[in-house]
Amino acid sequence: MFRRVLLSTSIAFALIMGMTSCSEETSPKQPDPAAPASTPVPIQTYNHKKILPSTPIAAPTSLPVIKEIERQRSSEGRIVQYFSAPSPPIYEKLTAQFPLTVITRNGSEMIFNKPPERIIAYDAAAVETIFAIGQGHRIIGTHSWVSHPIDVEDIEKVGDAFNMNIERILDLDPDLVFLFYPTFKEELENAGLRVLLLESVDDDLMGMANTFRTWGQITGAVNEAEILAENFESRITEIKLILDPYHSGPSVFQDVGDLWTPGNNTLMGSVFQLLKLENVAYDVDNYGQLSPEVIIDRNPQIIISSTPDLLYNNPAFNKLLPIKNKDIFESNDDYLGISGPRFILGLEELANEFYPGLFK
Amino acid sequence: MKSTANTSDQDIESTYKYPWNKITIGIVSIFICAVIGVAVGSVYIPVTSVFFILFSKLNFLNESPGLTSAWHTIIWNIRFPRVVLALLVGASLGISGATYQGLFKNPLADPYLIGVASGASLGATIVFLSGIPSTYGYFSLLPIAAFCGGIAAVFIAYLISIKSGNTHLSTLLLAGLAIGAFATAITGILMLRSDPDLRPLLSWLMGGFIRAQWSHSILIMPYMIVGVSFILGYSRVLNTMQLEGYYAESLGVNTEKTKRILIVSATLVTATAVSFSGLIGFVGLIAPHIIRLLWGTDYRTLLPLSALAGAAFLILADLTARTIVSPIELPVGIITALVGSPFFVYVLLKTKRSSVDGY
Among partner residues A2, A16, A23, which is closest to B214 by beta-carbon distance? Predict the structure, then answer.
């Protein structure tokens, strides 16, 4: 019996050695076959950094000044201001109005008679927004993955994405709990707390500014919120105006891990649309794991990934230009992953990266 | 027990003929499945071009008329390695499933039962979350960690069953379940206490071949060949072991030593397969049962045919997973369960023979 085992093992080893040597010979050294005229897929031969959209550049106009974002810590220690200048005079002074009616995600109304003083904000974007309009002192609790601004270090963490310490929340006695996912809504409401879910932004970039305004109304900081929202909107409009004369930009593939990619109806999809990048996942709804052969077939000129090594190391992809040129763009998930005030920074980063020189 | 008694009679009379005709059928059908698997995908490539590319890669042809290099990459670097990896993993899961079922005399035993899968997941999770850069050039640390985790889980279960002074197989089975549950719990704790971006890990745990490369198949082959050779070499003993222990011993079989060799071999094969494909359920359970229901319970026939059935099944399941909602892919485990279970029930109902006979 042992002889049989040995025999079959050695035969199999001989086979595998044959296969290995065969594949070593054939796979890397094969020269590219010349592509004749009737090729269905044209091969791109230029670096994306040098390409601009197809229409010529419009006559240069004076660009709006992008305000410097700056963080200041006031004497109270908690308040964060995003803008160095005092509120510009072009805006009318707004006044907070109470009682205030806020439309929640399921369409019902929630009435505020005064700004909530003890908020549990269970969402990174909400925390950033509230700090950005200078109302961070109202937040008494959040979850453990919120890390911006630095002041959240002092705020108690009452759970993470999977678990929530409802007893601790009750103990903190909040007058508002803000959630992004409705997972623990019922439990919290049954415990007698006021729970708010706002309508989710989905793929609406401008809708993000309205969320800032809503937070301004709720916390009474309407002017600060208006400045934040106006700034956000004007910077998006500016990008839109500059890109307006152009037809279409390069094609793009974003890998958020294991070839999962944002398609239509996603915030990133809208970002690509704004930047006139052609998403190779144009026929994917929401997020999906794109088939590798489809990626090769659609031949993206730009690849965005936060884990580029996995793509560099896969020999199947080494003929794609961004990979051949070691030119995968490493995105900053902190900016584009959170639909808060810093989202615009990530957006401008992408714009500057892919259209160098077009934005000043 | 009736049928096994028959087979052992056959052993003594040595009238057993190796089922070459069935094996040939199996190999031919795998070949057909593989050709379909390479020819079909979410990007349409004409069948003639597929063959041109394959033949030119194998040096039979030097010219490849009218083909783009994108098609070359798709056929040679994506589909072909993927089909080969699915074949190897399917064969591994099929044959180790049959081995575990025979070894534990338990119809529900499958490669994941004695803690292999949970141990492998734990190993992969530790490496993934430790922040060690898990890729070095061609080669990823994740499968190696999974492999070590799987082997460690089985080894601990085995030590426990020895320590308990009762090397009965049910002790090993229970110890494996306990270790598996423990490893799953640790994995859960680690995942809860970690950074938010778990997507790559979760999609590895779900199983699939989206990352398949030639190097994966080449890396798992040696382990597979050693493990499968041992299992096939001991297939006759596995028949004898279906008898009560003392009876087997009276026939001159050293049951303890054989058990150990078979457990190590089957675990080696499973852990290697799992390390590159992630956790794909159901193949190891149904492939041997279908063969058993169709062609009887002699392990000399059952083991090789289970491997072939597992391979063919997984190639087709992966084909379905990557084309059914193209351009998106589904986890292959969804397909194996979705297609596998109704087919299994069909075979169960159609075959009047009682399935409980054959362990």
Answer: A23
Spatial distance between the Cα atoms of A298 and A58, rounded to a whole number of angstroms? 30
Residues of A in contact with B63 (CB under 8 A): 33
CATH 3.40.50.1980 residue ranges of chain A are 69-237, 248-360
Let me know: does B308 contact B23? Beta carbons within 8 Å: yes
Interchain pair A43, B230: CB under 8 A: no
Instruction: Verify whether the Cβ–Cβ distance A33 to B63 is below 8 Å.
Output: yes
Going by the DSSP 8-state scheme, the letter that residue A318 receives in this structure is T
B173-192 tens-digit pLDDT: 888 888 988 998 998 888 77
- Cβ separation B326–A291 shorter than 8 A: yes
CATH class for the region spanning A69-237? alpha beta
Among B300, B350, B229, B275, which Cα is nearest to B120's? B275
Domain boundaries of chain B, sorted by first residue: 2-109+210-358
What homologous superfamily does CATH list for B2-109+210-358?
A: ABC transporter involved in vitamin B12 uptake, BtuC (1.10.3470.10)
Q: How confident is the prediction for chain A on average, in pLDDT? A: 75
pLDDT single digits (tens) A84-96? 344 444 556 777 7
> Residue A87 and residue B69: Cα distance in Å, rounded?
58
B211 neighbourhood in chain A, CB within 8 Å = 258, 310, 314
Classify A248-360 by CATH class: alpha beta
* A262 Cβ neighbours under 8 A, 6+ residues apart: A254, A256, A268, A269, A279, A281, A284, A286, A287
- Chain-chain contact of A291 with B72 (C-beta, under 8 angstroms): no
| Closest chain A residue to the Cα of B133, Cα to Cα | A309
Sign of CA dihedral B151, B156, B159, B164: negative
Q: Cβ neighbours of residue A33 under 8 Å, at least 6 residues apart?
A: B56, B63, B64, B67, B69, B72
Query: What DSSP designation does A317 have?
Result: G
What would the two tokens of residue B155 be?
């080894």
Q: Please state which of the ranges A134-143, A176-185, B55-64, B185-194 shows the lowest mean pLDDT.
A: B55-64
